[in-house]
Specification:
With 466 residues, the protein is an alpha+beta fold. It folds into 2 domains: 95 residues, Beta Barrel (OB fold (Dihydrolipoamide Acetyltransferase, E2P)); 270 residues, 2-Layer Sandwich (BirA Bifunctional Protein, domain 2). Helix content is 29%, strand content 25%. A hairpin with a 3-residue loop joins strand 1 and strand 2. Helix 5 crosses helix 7. Bound molecules: adenosine-5'-triphosphate and manganese (II) ion (MN). Adenosine-5'-triphosphate (ATP) binds next to strand 11, strand 15, strand 16 and helix 12.
Length: 466
């Protein structure tokens, strides 16, 4: 069977050809005159194609008259110009075979379902308009990310998901273990004997591929990793998942400004690609989810991002006439309410906040000279966007051996544990910088969807792993 996708069948240039289509019935209307109109969708685009099936079909009474929402079928016929309103092309069916029936117990019926309800039907929700659109856009975003980096000569490096270092994830790590938890092996002094673990030590799921990608940056040049990451943080928010995908480029011979340039260019490239290639899905989101979506994306692509220091951001927040849940104070991390105020209300555009206090950032960020007031900052860079808040977190990396070792000790880490990471500063150290982009936050921003659980195929959050 040479199947044509509906997205191609709907192209007016295909009119007059004989084709085979396959998909799932969205609606079926049976007219008294002995023919039926069936709206068929195969996921290749938002639009359904209308099938016109007449009583001359041998199985008309047996099959066609019983078609209901959710049935799957294969149909052969001729594409013709549509007489009806709302579509240019329809299929005059010559032969129709039902693959699978679906009765009224099918949870996905042709009516509005809430996103909350559909989250409990993750295996079927991609049959709806909203989720079909989300996952088509997600696909285009991923391809655009790869294209952006590949066109610029970045190498795609696969970093491991299992890690023995827990640098960033204090308290947020999922343990990887093969031990019997009902009967843990103990050492003589009663502690768990991790020597009996599969790897002979404690291991965890990675919270970031950055540390492991840096060695490749310090040999192959510009690189990126793009894969799943895991955080056991108990954040039941619309912006946190326990399992999410992260894009992490690492730029060789680059400083924090190069890093921010790269992040801005990448985001704009993705937005432009989505605008160009997902017009039908974006129009749907613009109508149903966020009336300013297309306008916002179009504006952002054409406008330089704001860039300010953390210290300047604090001054803006402190001067703002707002009732904060957390009062903004130099030395504290930006809360989502602060991030959203800056991007959404103050600048009304994406903003890169740079040079955060050293005390709230990890050991690997490049240490700045103290400011006039003696306060220490590091070359960190977060990109904040309206509605979502932080979408990217990055930094220039500390490339001075002595400073790195000092910082590690201050953070309670032993340089010996990270000997391989420290080696990069011992042999041929170079300035380099990178960032982590949360894929799902990017999908949220590009679709206007409000909850991160609705932009990943199978969301994993506290107490939920379907
Ligand atoms: P936040 O402060 O929003 O919790 P973070 O500062 O802990 O994020 P980073 O460690 O900087 O996050 O990770 C880089 C990027 O990964 C973030 O900018 C964000 O886009 C994404 N990200 C981080 N944590 C999560 C999560 N739990 N679920 C989804 N995306 C996340
Ligand atoms: Mn961050």
């Amino acid at each position: 069977m040479e199947r044509m996708k509906i997205v191609n069948a709907l192209n007016p240039a295909a009119v007059g050809t004989e084709v085979t289509l396959a998909g799932w019935v969205r609606t079926a209307r049976h007219s008294k005159g002995g023919f039926s109109f069936v709206a068929l969708n195969d996921g290749s685009c938002m639009a359904n194609i209308q099938l016109v099936a007449g009583g001359e079909l041998a199985n008309y009474d047996a099959d066609v008259l019983h078609l209901t929402t959710g049935c799957s079928l294969v149909v052969r016929g001729t594409l013709v110009e549509s007489q009806g309103k709302g579509q240019a092309v329809e299929l005059q069916a010559a032969e129709l075979t039902v693959l699978g029936g679906a009765d009224e117990t099918n949870p996905i019926q042709q009516k509005r379902h809430t996103f909350e309800f559909l989250r409990t039907k993750a295996h079927l929700r991609s049959r709806t308009n909203s989720f079909g659109a989300v996952f088509r856009v997600r696909n285009v975003i991923c391809r655009a990310v790869h294209d952006f980096f590949q066109q610029r000569g970045f190498l795609y490096v696969h970093t491991p998901l299992i890690t023995a270092s827990d640098c960033e994830g204090a308290g947020e790590l999922f343990r990887v273990s093969t031990l019997d938890h009902a009967n843990l092996p103990k050492t003589d002094d009663g502690a768990v004997d991790y020597d009996k673990e599969f790897f002979g030590k404690e291991t965890f799921l990675t919270v970031s591929g950055q540390l492991e990608v840096e060695p490749f940056c310090c040999s192959l040049g510009d690189v990126y990793t793009f894969g799943p990451t895991f955080r056991a943080e108990n954040s039941n928010t619309p912006r946190h998942l326990a399992e999410f995908w992260m894009v992490e480029p690492e730029l060789a011979f680059a400083n924090i400004d190069d890093d921010a340039d790269c992040a801005e260019a990448m985001l704009k490239y993705v937005f432009q690609t989505v605008l160009d290639e997902c017009a039908e899905d974006l129009a749907f989101f613009n109508q149903r989810i966020d009336k300013t979506l297309i306008e916002t994306l179009t504006h952002i692509v054409a406008t330089p991002f704001e860039r300010i220091s953390y210290t300047a951001a604090m001054e803006i927040l402190q001067a703002a006439d707002k009732e904060w849940e957390f009062a903004p104070e130099w030395g504290c991390d930006l809360q989502t309410e602060h991030e959203r105020y800056l991007a959404e209300e103050h600048f009304k555009t994406p903003v890169a906040v740079m040079h955060y206090p050293e005390s709230i950032k990890p050991f690997y960020m490049y240490r700045n000279e103290p400011d006039e007031q003696g306060r220490r900052t590091v070359r960190a860079m977060d990109i904040l966007v309206p509605k979502v808040g932080e979408i990217i977190g990055g930094s220039q990396r500390e490339d001075r051996l002595d400073v790195l070792e000092e910082r590690m000790k201050e953070c309670g880490l032993t340089p010996e544990e990270y000997w391989w990471y420290v080696d990069l500063r011992r042999y041929g150290t170079i300035p380099h910088a990178g960032f982590g982009l949360g894929l799902e936050r990017l999908v949220l921003f590009c679709t206007g969807m409000a909850n991160i659980r609705d932009v990943i195929p199978y969301p994993r959050t506290p107490r939920t792993a379907f």
